[in-house]
Structure formats: structure tokens, C-alpha cells
Amino acid sequence: MSHRRSGLLATGVALVALTFGLAACGGSDDDGSSGSGSGSGGEEVSIYSSFPLQGASRPTGISLQNGIELALEQAGYKAGGVKINFEPMDDSTAQAGEWTPEAESANAKKAVQDDSAVAYLGTYNSGAAAISIPILNEAGLAMLSPGNTAVGLTSDAPGADTGIGEPDIYYPTGERNYARIVPKDTVQGAALAGVMDEDGCTKVGVLNDNEVFGKGLAANVIDAGSQYDYEFVDGGAVDTKAANFRATADDFASQGVDCFIFGGITASNAVQLYKDMAAAMPDAKLYGPDGVADTDFAGGLPDDVAARTKVTVATLSEEDYGKEGAKFFEDYQAKYGDPGPYSIYGYEAGKLILDVLERAEDPTDRAAVLKALFETKNRDSILGNYSINEDGDTTLTDYGVYNIKNGDLEFNEKISAKPGT
Amino acid sequence: MPVAFAIHDLTADGSLTRIGNNLVDGVSNGAIWALVALGYTMVYGIVELINFAHGEVFMIGSFIAFAAFGWFGMDLNTAIPLLILGLLLCLLISAIASGTLNAMIERVGYRPLRDAPKLAPLITAVGFSFILQNVGVLWLGGSQVSVPDLIGSQDVLFQISGVEVTNGDALAILTTVPLVLALTFFIDRARLGKAMRATAQDPDAARLMGIDVDKTISATFLIGGLLAGAAGLIYALYQTTIWFHQGFEAGLIAFTAAVMGGIGNLRGAVIGGILIGVIQQISDNRIGPEWTPVIVFAFLVLVMVVRPRGLIGEETRQAG
Question: What is the DSSP secondary structure assignment for residue A153, as one 8-state letter?
């Protein structure tokens, strides 16, 4: 009898385990969607996307993916006379709660191995791009990011880690294959430094999460802030898995820090960090980059902390994007709900790749698509007029400053980075 | 390390306020690690198994406490008497739920493997750890969740010569100390406690003396889980942020604490937990947060090299 009971128990547990396993495995596909042109005949090309669809960056990843999908859908999944097969991928895992090098690497390899792949849209996290750019580079596959801002991915300007050989380390063939439509962190750093000056900061505490984006952004803020009167207290990198940051916050408080900025992303335990900073420095102003511009961060902060936090994102107010922008936001809202700050960049990434396929000599040829991407000049887009320079950077320079109200980001002002930054 | 910084503070500032604040923060943080470490050390002491799922049982305790806050409608406006009553109820619920979960894991996963090679229950423990992490992800999602700051965790309760004791510090220390004292008394004096010690020393001899070894082991897991549940609630109130990954991190620290103190030794686990808490705080505050994991584990290596059985020594059957 007891043996039978034990057997039943074991079977029950195995079933529970199987159920959780299947649920966890299935989770990543729930929001994945793919489409292809329904036109008759013709050649077909594949466009891959890779964003974090689980964990703290999920809202941003989903909005980027949806933006691309909307652009492709509006074009009927066709451009340059070819049908487009859209393959969205997830570079995060439930276990990690954020993007992982293994998932991103697997995504890049999957795209490379598909002979019909002509473009790879992603990533959101700069660290993830550092993994996939070299893989795609060796295969000559064009990569277009609507979310990466780390300087070192494209240039050796301040913020790049030239010690490890950025940016050349990412391009083993010596040819560039990576472009982005979001301004890099020399621009964001200048925008943040400018806002902190406007707000009357006198001593700014800086921490980073020791990742490609966070470390670079912190360096950019310090570099750009050197032209202002305030001084910096650079606390270096934090252990993002720490239970709390009270001791570090106390250290800043004892040094008279009155403003704080974190170079990092929400998944790097940002909510806990900002809470601890706010508690240790009750009058300090708090700032964050686009890495924390999501609902998990905004919604996670208590109201009193949110009220003194400002976040920068390259996205401006809806009014700044004119009629085309208004239509996009309306269409996005109707299909997916709240657009979030990054959906418009996903949309423009989709629109640009459609344009590239139209302009490419042979839209099924990777080299021709790559060439057309770097030939993007004076493009009139939903984001404004911009070009892609030889490094792969956009010429756009505007950043939006957001407040946090009722758990959501609320546009406050537009900042144009100063010339020379 | 604290002594070195105390001397530094005296010479530089002429006061011990800063090191005092480091110690208070460290002891309160360490108290939570100690509660979790007790579960590791008790289980290892009695069945020589590293229960890798223990950190996740602690995490589930936090999640249950968070849910219980909602069930009782507790928020920032709740009157203090009702808040205290509600928190006691939540403590009871999270402790019982975590204790039951831990006992169930033992019954279902470890007991059938009692005579199997040691690797089998170890891998089963890793399996349960992943299952519970996924339960956490499915329950509250993959990112950090803010818990209402019901006790004003970082509000200063009182000061002594500039050394601040916050509500969170008081909660962690005042909950942990009685629990540890009660547990120590129970293990030393109660019939079941004596049975646990006997089983830890020699299960076969214990069985010959009429002790129900299986029940004793189950009780050990239950008590370890109760403490993990209590720690889960304290953690939620102290940090005001919880997430599915907290158990992995806490488990790693608590296991390190248990080893540092002497695995299998209750007092060792408490001392190890508090030591790690203090080292973390001093390192974060004085040296730089990026060095903290290095310093903690370097200290562990040092302890292991000098005292291979931990600071206090093992109370396992090999040691005996």
C-alpha cells in the first residue's frame, strides 16, 4: 500500500514538474509571431529580430518587436519585389530574467545559418549586440539596432572601452555590418549631464552595472559633465545581484551627494538601487538612462521616489513626430495597446529595412542589402531626417526627458545634445 | 576588518559612528542570512545533503508573505495595532507554508533516495530548485516586484551616538534572535531535538534506540522550512523588493555562511551569517561594491584553509 502511495506521489510530482517545465518552455513563444507575404510567387527573404521577451526588459522588447511587425504588416510583408518572412526571437531566459549571452549567440547563429536571412533587427541590450555583431559580421549579415546606445559598438569615442579594442573587436572581417537608429551614449550622456546642470546638482554620485551599456553610459555622463560646475563621485560598478545597496548609498550620503545616476538597466536590480539611494539621501535628485525607461522600473518605484526621478529616452513626445507619428501611435494602440517609449524605434527599424530592400540592387543578396543599409542618407522618417554614417551611427541627436507619474513615464522636455558631444 | 576600520575612523574622524552604522546594517542583513543558513546546516547535519532547493523555499516564503499582505488588505495606511497583528499572521502563514513545502520536498524527492548514491538526492535538490524558480517566474514574473514598505524599513527608529537603528534593522534582529534562541533550546532540550541530534550522530544507532529516523528527518526539513519562511517575510519587509532569483543569491550566501561557521553546527551558521553580513556592508561602504563578492569568498577560502571544519567546527557524523 505504502509503495503504491509512493509511486502515485512520485508520478504526481513528475507531472507537476513536467507541467512547469512545459509552461516555462512555452512562455517564450507566447508573444512570438511571424508573418510572411501572401503574394503569389517571387523570392522570399527572412528578417530576424532578437529582443528580450522575458524578465524586466520584456515590455521594451515586446514593444520593439511589435513596432517592427506593424511596419512589415503595413507593407504586406513585401519589399523590393520579394516576400518577407519575419522571424522574431527572444534573447532572454526566464531563469536569468534578462538577456543572456547564450540565447543571443544562439539567435545570431540561427540567422546566419538561414540562407534566406538578409537582415537581423536587434538587439535592445548593447551587451547582447557585442555578442551577435561578430557572428553576423563573419557571415556578412546586416544588423540594425533600434535600441543599442553603447558607444563602443561603433566608435572609439569617450565611453568606448578601447582597452579591449572597441569597436574593432566586433568586426573580425574589418568591414562594418552594424547600424543603429537610436543616438549613441555620447549624445545621451550629454543630455543627462545637461539636465543635471539645469536642475542645480552640485555633487553627482555615479554607479554602473558593469555591462557594456551601463559602464559606457556612466563614463559618457562623467565625460560630458566635466564641462559643468558640479563634481562627480564615481562609485564604480555594483554587484547587481546584491540584496540591497544601503551601504553604498550611505557612502554617497556621507560624501554630500545630492544627485544620483545609474548606468544600467532595470534588470540590474535598479528598483532596489533607486529605493536605497532615495532612502539614504532624502533630498537627492535621481536620474536614469533609457535602460530603465520601462514600466517595470516606473511602476516599481514608490511614489515618493518616482517623484524625484528623471529618465532620458531617445523618444520624444507624440506631438514631435507630426502626422505620421500620430498615425503610428493610433495604429499601434489599436493593435497592441500602450506603445511605450521604444515602439516607434522598432517601427522605424522595420520601415528602414523595407526601404533598404527596395533600394538594394538584389534584395536577396546579403552584401547588396548591407551596402544599401550604409547608403541610407537624408532619410525622411517618422523620427525625423537622418543618415547612417560610416560607423553605422544615426545622425539623430534629440533626447526626451521623462518624469515618472502614477507608475508610468511622462514626457517632460526635449534635449538636443550640444555640438561637439 | 571591522577593527581596522574602527581604528581608521577614530584617527580620521575621532568617532566610531561610521563603523557603528556599518555593524548595525551588517548584523541586520546577516541575521536574515543566518535564518536561511540554519536550514542548510540542519539538513546537512542530519542527512549530509546540501539542499539546493532551500534558497527557493525561502523565496516562496517571501512570495507568500507578499500575497498575504494583499489578503489582509495591509498597506501604508493600516493602523499600527492591526499592522502588527497582520504581520504576525503573515509570519505564521509564510513560515507554515515554507515549512510544509520543505517537508513535502523531503518526502517526495529525498526520502526515496535515502540509500541511493549521494549524487542522486543532490541532483534532485537542484531539480527542485529549478522547479521552484519557475514557480516564482510564473507567479510574479521575471523581474523585481516592489513590496509595500509597511514598516518604514529605512526610517530611523532611534540613534545612539549617531549610530542609527532603522525599523528594518530592529525587525531583522528582534525576529531572528528569539527564533534562534528557541531553536537552540529546542534542539538541546526537547525530545525531538534530542532525536535529531542522535540521528545526526548515527542514524542506525538512533533507530536501534527506538527513534523514528524518517519522522525525525521530516521534522528537520519542516523546521528548516519554517525558518526559511520567516526569513522570507523579514526579507520582503526589510528589502521591500522581491523576485524569483532572490533565493538563488540568498542560498549561495547562506550556504557559504553555513560552511564558514562549520556546516552542521547551528551556532556556526548564525555566526557565519552575521559575519558575512558585516563583511558585505563594510566592503560595500568602504572598499567598493564591485569587490564585495571577492572579499566575502576570499574570507571563506581563508577560513577553510586555516580551519577546514569552519569557525566553530562541524557537528556531523564524520566530525564526531
Answer: G
